[in-house]
Known about the structure:
6-stranded mixed β-sheet, flat, alpha/beta, 3 domains
Amino acid sequence: MDTIFALATARGRAGVSVIRLSGPLAHQTAQRLTGRDLPGPRQAALRRFSWQGEVLDEGLLLIFGAGESFTGEEVAEFQLHGSMAIVAALLRLLSGMPGLRLAEAGEFTRRAMENGRLDLSQVEGLADLIDAETEAQRRQAMRVFSGAIGQRIELWRPKLLRAAALLEAVIDFVEEDVPVDVTPEVRDLVRDLLTDLRREVAGAPMAERIREGFEVAILGAPNVGKSSLLNMLSGRDVAITSEIAGTTRDVIEVRMDLAGLPVTLLDTAGVRDTEDRIEAIGVERALARGRVADLRIILLDNPADPLPVEPGEDDLVMIGKADLRRFENCRMISARTGEGIEALIGEVGAVLARRSLGSGSLVRERHRLAAIQAIQALESAQDELDGGAERLELAAEELRRAIRALDSLVGRIGVEDVLGEIFASFCIGK
């Protein structure tokens, strides 16, 4: 196998840059560049890196043994001064050495998976961890990267194997008297597995929302202050505001961190009947995005105004422009003075945080679909068990199908078609 190398830190000027090598020539290359004995595994040592009498830099050298590194191979890491010239010189030198080549995107992580250091779900968790923008995303990605999905499967898989083995024992000795009826135990195992899997699938949509982000739509009639509220919440002027009704005609999206959760705020066109064809399209889009949003902030001019949409259980109905007039027993905000804004942010965050408590370990659509395939196979196995002894062989095959579905979750089988897409999302050097 080739020895690969890459810059593991961001390109450009920095305090420190790290170049990583992995493969059978990693330690030998480090020794050639330092001209000295290698430090002990996982011990940093100050070394001068030079080639053909020319000193390139002085920095730290770390060595990891095979089976003890991220990739599972021999690894050397050079921690250099973060000069673009130093990094370019060393990368150019390494690229000219026989047996060494620049790593492809995600190749270090791919080798970690191929060498059994990570399963596929952990690889996906690592990708999400790198991309995490909020605390909730970091916690969820860290849970998956730490092996939460694989741990669940390691609990489920022995039960499936036990159920399949019981049925196959009966099938193998079908012409002999089997003293014990195994189907009650098999039914119990299948029922318990179905309960766990259905719970995980139920929590998958919310886990995916944490990963992708929640949508909060601001809805209301024209000129009630929706754009001003968006600007106040985002802390910058992202939407044009004016006294002219119907200024906003399309959906304006702003991504932000709200109470540690990823949230996209949607400023929408004012909802009203209009003869203007362009504005009418904007109104249709506003209503469509509002219907599918996770939460709606409905903004009114006064309590007597008709609601543009029927509010859901957690939707927030607010009266805007509190700096201009007052209404008793109403929840009021002002995008100009900031009155009520902190309370609004807190309430939105509390609603979304409460919903996120129901999230499970399955954070991607691929995970959810694999779990659904396992559920369908288990339900079919139950049906076959109801068919009597002559259907046991079919029930056993359905159990094996459930095992294959769960194995695909962690990359044991049948995931070659998704590997390229997953690793392409990684940067070179990871």
